[in-house]
Amino acid sequence: MLVELSIRDFAIIDSLRIGLGPGLNIFTGETGAGKSIIMDALSLILGDRATNEIIREGADEALVEALFDVSGSRARGLDTVLASSGIDPADELVIKRVVQRAGRNRIYINGGLATLVTLTEVGRRLIDIYGQSEHQSLTRPEEHVELLDSFGSLGALRSHMAEAYREYTAARKELDTLLQDSRNTADKKDFLSYQLKELMDADLKPGEEETLKQEKERLQSAGKLGSVTAEAERAIYSDSGSITEKLGAISKALKELSAIDPALSDVEASIAASMVSLEEAGSFLRDYSSSIEADPEALEAASDRLDLIGKLRKKHGCDLEELIARREKLDAELKLLDNVEFRAGELEARVKTLKARAEAAAQSLTDARKISAKELETLIEGELASLGMKGVVFEAAIDADAGHDGGPRLTEKGGDRVSFFIATNKGEGLKPLARIASGGELSRIMLAMKSVMSSGRVPTLIFDEIDTGVSGSIAQVVGGKLKEVSRTNQVLCITHLPQVAAFADSHFVVSKKTVNNRTVTTVAEATGDERVEEISNMLGGLKVTDTTRKHASELIDAAKGMSGKKKAHGKRPGATEGKG
Q: CATH number for the 2-139+436-569 domain, one of 1.20.1440.230, 3.40.50.300, 2.60.120.10, 2.60.40.1120?
């Protein structure tokens, strides 16, 4: 439950701390005093998006902080959400939102930074806010299936349905794509076959392009290569006075001199060795120069081959190695196209199986919904009877949503359309909830639905002026119903009706005044005579008399009598007055 709410620099609130307890927490006060701002602050804690417009004039940031006792919320999946976000579960949970004028907003859960997605998941497990705006959301037919499934605890069946539907639609999409592709298979096969034949005929080899470039350059330089190597051979070996001839004479002279001075032996040996190397070089150059000759045909062949590779590279937009890889890819694609009919047969069988599975899941969901609908109808009619609407007929209608093939139109939610109908007066036909004309009737219907669907599911329920259009004895009945709901849930309720306020376990008065030329809001818990005075103000308006005070006391006593013996809720923290 919500234990404490702190607000700072939020709208017209400067600084405020409210300590809340179990049971029924009532907020009263004049219109414009700031009650709706408190609800806006709570909405921010639960994941509503924030703008810097909410920051109090003159402040740099707004802060909202809430302390929750979550020791009794373990079965609602809160621990799982916290753990998945790296937050250690604990018996207390502190949520803080900071909204800065510069646009930097921060969320903290138990002191650690958190995302808006995490906050939303946590918040919806802690508090359910219900205001006049939900009259519209709860009368939208598209919401009814969610309400019925929530009431019937059909989450497991819904998850199974969603999984079966996703698998079926994925297989269906794959089959449709395959069949669509198969319509163009012949043209595609011709195109791919042409490309593959072109690459196969080219018979490309890794590294071939670089080798061809070198060969082409060699053939283009054949004359130069032959003449230069022949000239070099003659200078080294063949011509009179060649290098080897001169070195031979030098070597012979040094050999004779080395007999006189052995120190010349090493030089002579080195020259002799050089002659051997030069003779070998001359021999190679003689053979090389005689082998080189112009070969126009070979040159043309190399040029043509390089041109072919260049055209293929440009056409496919890749290098030689990628062309070779594409050849293999094209071959694989053609084999796959040859397999389309076989694959289509396999997929059709799979789609049929998965469709049957999805339809079976939808049928299970429909059967469970019908059982839940009957239970919901009975409970809603009972709740409405206790709210002064005896004889009302409520129906949760379940109809099959037909698809284009005549079968059920499946979605992740199954194959049903769920619609809530009601007849508020005897003899009248059932009408959709959206067509209920009376605001008072609609408020009671919504309270009955909320009592049945939310009791025990979310720790804290907030009712924001849902008693619109209700007065007199019916207002007292509504107050009793809120009190009854507060047996299993902490309830926060904003009301303008003294008959409802009389049922409070804790009564908070919201007011505003001007301090130093600025509007300030105060929230104070009213007890004893203060509470009698506040309810008297609600009864008597500007003029409060002893008669209205007596009436207020009688309302409080009557509320206690209607409530009966209250269940113990434990020690409740007090409320601290603040100003804004």
A: 3.40.50.300
